[in-house]
Amino acid sequence: MPIASIPAHHEPAPLKPQRRRLHQADAWVDIAGAAALTGRVPATITARLSRRAPKRHPFLPAHRSLYRLYWPANTLRRRRAEQDEIRKA
To answer: Of the four listed, 48, 51, 56, 77, which is most buried by Cβ atoms within 10 Å?
Structure first.
Protein backbone atom coordinates (compact mmCIF):
# COMPACT_ATOMS: atom_id res chain seq x y z
CA MET A 1 0.00 0.00 0.00
CA PRO A 2 1.60 3.33 -1.07
CA ILE A 3 2.03 6.08 1.48
CA ALA A 4 0.13 9.24 0.62
CA SER A 5 2.41 12.22 0.38
CA ILE A 6 1.76 15.90 0.28
CA PRO A 7 2.93 17.52 -2.94
CA ALA A 8 6.00 19.72 -2.54
CA HIS A 9 4.17 22.74 -3.96
CA HIS A 10 1.52 22.61 -1.21
CA GLU A 11 2.42 25.27 1.37
CA PRO A 12 0.04 27.10 3.67
CA ALA A 13 -0.76 30.65 2.67
CA PRO A 14 1.11 33.20 4.80
CA LEU A 15 -1.02 35.16 7.23
CA LYS A 16 -1.47 38.79 6.33
CA PRO A 17 -1.30 41.11 9.33
CA GLN A 18 -4.15 43.55 9.79
CA ARG A 19 -3.03 46.95 8.56
CA ARG A 20 -4.72 49.80 10.28
CA ARG A 21 -3.76 53.28 9.27
CA LEU A 22 -2.85 55.79 11.93
CA HIS A 23 -4.24 59.29 11.55
CA GLN A 24 -1.80 61.62 9.81
CA ALA A 25 -2.80 64.77 11.71
CA ASP A 26 -0.19 64.23 14.42
CA ALA A 27 3.18 62.61 14.93
CA TRP A 28 2.85 59.11 16.39
CA VAL A 29 5.31 57.69 18.91
CA ASP A 30 5.89 54.15 20.05
CA ILE A 31 6.67 52.95 23.57
CA ALA A 32 10.17 54.48 23.56
CA GLY A 33 8.82 57.85 22.40
CA ALA A 34 6.03 57.71 24.98
CA ALA A 35 8.59 57.02 27.68
CA ALA A 36 10.70 60.00 26.56
CA LEU A 37 7.73 62.38 26.40
CA THR A 38 6.18 61.35 29.71
CA GLY A 39 9.32 60.76 31.75
CA ARG A 40 8.29 57.19 32.58
CA VAL A 41 10.25 53.98 32.19
CA PRO A 42 8.94 51.84 29.27
CA ALA A 43 8.35 48.89 31.60
CA THR A 44 6.15 51.09 33.79
CA ILE A 45 4.00 52.06 30.80
CA THR A 46 3.52 48.48 29.64
CA ALA A 47 2.78 47.32 33.20
CA ARG A 48 0.14 50.02 33.65
CA LEU A 49 -1.45 49.13 30.33
CA SER A 50 -1.56 45.42 31.05
CA ARG A 51 -2.91 45.86 34.60
CA ARG A 52 -5.20 48.79 33.73
CA ALA A 53 -3.96 50.49 36.86
CA PRO A 54 -3.83 52.80 38.72
CA LYS A 55 -7.55 53.44 38.42
CA ARG A 56 -7.36 57.17 39.24
CA HIS A 57 -4.58 58.02 36.77
CA PRO A 58 -4.41 55.33 34.07
CA PHE A 59 -2.00 55.64 31.19
CA LEU A 60 -3.58 56.72 27.93
CA PRO A 61 -4.93 53.87 25.80
CA ALA A 62 -2.77 53.05 22.82
CA HIS A 63 -3.55 52.41 19.17
CA ARG A 64 -2.30 49.03 18.00
CA SER A 65 -0.84 48.66 14.52
CA LEU A 66 1.09 45.62 13.35
CA TYR A 67 1.50 44.36 16.94
CA ARG A 68 2.97 47.64 18.17
CA LEU A 69 1.53 50.37 20.37
CA TYR A 70 1.35 54.00 19.25
CA TRP A 71 0.19 57.25 20.82
CA PRO A 72 -0.29 60.74 19.33
CA ALA A 73 2.65 62.86 20.49
CA ASN A 74 0.54 65.97 21.17
CA THR A 75 -1.80 63.98 23.41
CA LEU A 76 1.13 62.72 25.47
CA ARG A 77 2.59 66.23 25.75
CA ARG A 78 -0.77 67.62 26.88
CA ARG A 79 -1.17 64.82 29.43
CA ARG A 80 2.34 65.47 30.75
CA ALA A 81 1.53 69.17 31.20
CA GLU A 82 -1.69 68.28 33.07
CA GLN A 83 0.20 65.91 35.36
CA ASP A 84 2.86 68.56 36.04
CA GLU A 85 0.12 71.05 37.00
CA ILE A 86 -1.41 68.51 39.40
CA ARG A 87 1.97 67.90 41.03
CA LYS A 88 2.59 71.65 41.49
CA ALA A 89 -0.72 72.18 43.29
So the answer is: 48
